[in-house]
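*** Query protein ***
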Amino acid sequence: MIYTDPSARLLALHTTHTSYWMGVDETGRLLHLYYGPLRETPPAWPEPYFDPGGRPDRLPQEWPCPGLGDNHAPFFAPEWADGAIAAEMRFAGVKTRAGKYALPGLPAFRIGEDPGAETLRITLKDGRGLTLTLLYGVLPGCDVITRAAVLENTGEEPVTLRGMPSAVLDFARSAHPALDFITFDGAWAAERTPCRAPVRPGVQAVGSVGGIPTHAHNPFVMLCTPDAGEDRGECWGAALVYSGNYRMQAESTPAGVRLSVGIEPFRFAWTLAPGGRFIAPEAAFVYSGAGFGPMSRCFHRAIRRHLLPARWADMAAPRPVLLNSWEACYFDFDEAKLLRLAAAAKAAGCDLFVLDDGWFKGRNDDTSSLGDWVADPAKLPEGIDGLCRKVNGLGLAFGLWVEPEAVNPDSDLYRAHPDWALQIPGRETLALRHQYTLDFSRADVREGVWRQLTALLDSCPVAYVKWDMNRTLANVYSAALPAARQGEVYHRYVLGVYELQQRLTDRYPDLLVENCAGGGARFDCGMLYYSPQIWTSDNTDALDRLMIQYGTSFCYPPCVMGAHYSTVPNHTTHRTASVEARMAAALAGTFGFELDLTAYTAAEIEALHPFVQFYRDHGALVRGGELYRLAAPDGQGAAWAIAAADGSEAVVFAVGAPLDGRRLPLPFADPARRYAVHALYTGSAPQPPAAPLPGETLLEQGLPLPALSGTLPGYVAWLQSQEG
């Protein structure tokens, strides 16, 4: 619910459990007053902030402005024709409406099926000629508040934006004397490890200048009280719905902590001619007074219900069990080998066969042919359509890997259109992974790629596309823009990717798109607007995946995490793990296989069937249930569960260290129910079902886990509730 009281100069956003209060001071500044547990009465104007006589840097402003006394690290930076970088945005009006705003050309949370969704529009104006519209979206059922900003040049002179935030959130020192900053960091094959540290004086920030979010950091952060944990303490989560250069920054001053979220100012410069406007990407916030778990579950519900493409938002609708050819074949295959692999996938119970890299002409390693999206006749004499028909004949759908944003110098596309690549005049173009990046800021380049993709997808019934992006941007300069506008290229590139993915999903509404960027380098809310799943990491090792998927889960639900069962020793880590451990990690995401099943015996194939059947039986619960992180990864193992919202059923996963005979408390258990435990075992005699356990016992004492030995054991169980 949105509350406005012009006479008291107060505005409020209420979700089911939280409130966000703002006020307009006597000078017209829009101030942030409160964000926390549901509060229907106005908060006090906090001291020492309310200081209308001066000291703007001590005011908790919803839109801080540079150059006129706010001395925080600048984020919003409009540069006028005379070189001055300054603004003074003052309140000019407010409107409310039912439903949630949308952002032209940018992804944003949708209204979904939430009848209580609302939009608050606040207008601020600068006397020299800027009009700012702050858009606040309320998704009450998910306890999510979103924020975006639209800046218009309503003056008579051009203005160049050298910084444009999406949102700013202030925390008063008096209310929050100490806060921790949690980021999700890593590297290729080790993405999104939580990193927690006290907020120190000055600026702490994560972000990217590589054109994509990169493996190093994720565009999701948290602030929390020092006592916060999985089920205790206050925390605030912030996600940016954007897939390019970004910055998420916590700045501590004597007045408090300011969290700023938006596009990275480095190499960003956007000129607004008179009448022009710029739309900042959306940010989304969740507050929890009971720790990280409830905050994560709010984000998960919002992503499932309000962000994913509508075609894939129904968690009860099955997702295909797939086999991806990459770790089975790499570049070494022909049609006969692929068909043998597809037949083995069918025998294992798969629904979809995905042909990864190496299928297009001349592609025998990563040094050539990117950009030439035509089948290699030496490998596929009947082309993609011929292979697709034969795979379909085996009873499998067919999927394909592409990397549309890249081009090898050794390719027909580059030889025909060398100017299509990003390149700085007079400088050597950097070929990372033997490839350049196509200039997706240009409409003609996007159209050329679009014609290639549609020719391919129209030639046969492709059911799935894995859209990869294996490098960061470099030599960022567009031949289509004048020198003064080169600061627009990074953002225009991202808008170009969004445009092409939107066209793809519009033209092929039943196509399942899985985004990927060398694994998890572009795992963000922006990409989830176009694709319902993202390849979580190129590292499929079961032990490493515990941490990767654990860190990912703080914002993103399991249903969006591409997770595959792979061979041992693992191709990345050379580590060995049990079948059950590898299956536990894979079954918790969008389940599939990534190995050479033609090397499996009939008995080994048969042993996979219970796990595939488990996913078919309980996949809707895994995709749509509530995630509980029960034992955090410690390098030795982890445990987690996904439960129905009403506590009627759950799946429990444990790997490694917890399988020492301990009891695992289940916070979702309903004390009024009893739960039958159906454990999934393979390679041993079937286990007799245990007597149903009282929910109160599971809640307080815990689920008794088996004591299992061997190399990284695993455990998967389904808990079915019974009344009384």
